[in-house]
Amino acid sequence: MSDSEVFIGSIDQGTTSTRFIIYDRLARAVGSHQVEFTQFYPQAGWVEHDPMEIVESVRICMARALDKATANGHNVDSGLKAIGITNQRETTVVWSKSTGLPLYNAIVWMDARTSSICRKLEKELPGGRTHFVESCGLPISTYFSALKLLWLLDNVEGLNEAVKKGDAIFGTIDTWLIWNLTGGVENGLHVTDISNASRTMLMNLKTLEWDKSTLDTLGICAKMLPKIISNSEIIGNITKGWPITGIPISGCLGDQHAAMVGQSCRKGEAKSTYGTGAFILLNTGEEVIKSNHGLLSTVAYKLGPKAPVNYALEGSIAIAGAAVQWLRDSLGIISSASEIEELASKVSSTGGVYFVPAFNGLFAPWWRDDARGICIGITRFTNKSHIARAVLESMCFQVKDVLDSMHKDAEAKSDKTEFLLRVDGGATVNNLLMQIQADLLGSSVVRPADIETTALGAAYAAGLAVGVYTEDEIFASGEKLKQATIFKPVLEEELRKKKADSWCRAVSRSFDLADLSL
């Protein structure tokens, strides 16, 4: 078969939408479809999804993408070799093995309902907030799946009894989808990949297995947890009842890890994905580097059962593109997300306005769940263009905070080559955002020709497992850089430093605001 007759499918299940993309062997998308699904906000700080709606969104996207590829003249039915999956991480689902139904809505990664559980554990455990860092690399935080699972066990009627009977099982979204795709109640496979498992707070980074000590401390039953596998191996075939059947699922990565593969990030290389949140990962090779500056030690990827593990330092930002959605949906300042670039371009600066989008607290490197959103420096001169530009700057300042911490932890500046930040995600189509990012960093920003690298990374991992790709092809970053757009800084160093200092002052003003009266 020629390169144009071999195809890999990629399920990209994000925080607000699901996509299915079909790539040919040259990584060109030949058919795709995207569906948005419902966000539920039952209380302030709570965010939920309907797991059944997510499954249905995958079904719809598969069917529509196949139709589009066929209409474009591609014989996908005979040339489709494998399916990869990438997903929003940490989002937690528990369901019944016997009925296949969720026992509660999925609790989304940014949900902050577990803050009281976090405070309780911090007080009770001898290591406080960092009690589990030695094993899993993660602090006690509302962000991670283990805390969400504890909340479910404490609050969902009948769940503990179902766990004792062996009927209730746990998973992140990858696990939920694979279970459904491979049979569901009819012997569906209960697995998760190493990258998603690393975000639960329950996996030991060294052994790559569920950590018995952590499970015992938290009172979580190991029998409800999925089997941990690598990011690139044949997991199982898609069963009947789906638009695609009999095709192996052979790649699975959390979205940020998939983006690292899609961006060809080897040791010493970093990428930032701008979506609902923003996520910056630096590949640290086969070494776990512990952060002293508020970052997380995590898995980057393991591309095969016998392949070495690459680890990463990660800085997670809860609110990035979600702040633009807030301007659109809650304030009505813009009617579509794409309008923010034109609006913000009407002014050359924010006019001294600083916006800190701590809607549910702040993640890396601050880790302050008592922070709340603020907008300061407002004068009678301030207009909506200044606000829009301040929102864009807030995304870039947060990325800068994380990268500054990464440089300190990994001593990245000892490398004399110019540091290039690789960027991806939907928000990177905004040229003004990318220029602001380069200006605030004082270093170049590289945007690839294909900005949707999460889906591409999952396709690469799936193709690698079935022999469609080699690792050398996946990590041939030189050719990709030739097709990229590079944004170079133009802001003067003195002004850059003054703006960074002002941002830090603004961030400090957002602390200790969680108990403001309604």
UniProtKB/TrEMBL annotation:
GO CC annotations, alphabetized: mitochondrion
Reaction(s) catalysed (UniProt annotation): glycerol + ATP = sn-glycerol 3-phosphate + ADP + H(+)
CDD domains on file: ASKHA_NBD_FGGY_GK1-3-like
Domain Carbohydrate kinase FGGY N-terminal: start-end pairs: 8-262
Enzyme class: transferase
Domain of life: Eukaryota
Annotated Carbohydrate kinase FGGY C-terminal domain residues: 271-465
The protein's Enzyme Commission number: 2.7.1.30
Family listed: Belongs to the FGGY kinase family.
UniProt xrefs under PANTHER family: GLYCEROL KINASE, SUGAR KINASE
Listed name of the protein: glycerol kinase
Source organism per UniProt: Solanum bulbocastanum
